[in-house]
Amino acid sequence: VLKGQFGATTLSDNESDVDTDADQIASGADYLLSKQTTLFAYYNMLSYEADFEGSQEQTKDNLGVGIVHNF
User: Fold this and answer.
1) 29 three-class SS
2) What is the pTM of this model?
3) The pLDDT of residue 53 is above 80
4) Residue 24: CB partners within 8 Å, gap ≥ 6?
5) How many CB atoms are located within 10 Å of the residue 30 CB?
């Protein structure tokens, strides 16, 4: 099973009048080993940038793997 997701938001700080824009992209996969056991993996990228002079875009990457076993 393949999975995908996208999200975007703007965070506003009313005191300093600074907005921060953020985008997130995620993808993943599940692989059934049996009726009770599933392997999974995912990748997630988050990028964000504050709306003021001199601000640079920041990017964070995450990778995860795991196993689920239902008794």
Assistant:
1) strand
2) 0.70
3) no
4) 5, 6, 7, 8, 44, 45, 46, 47
5) 13
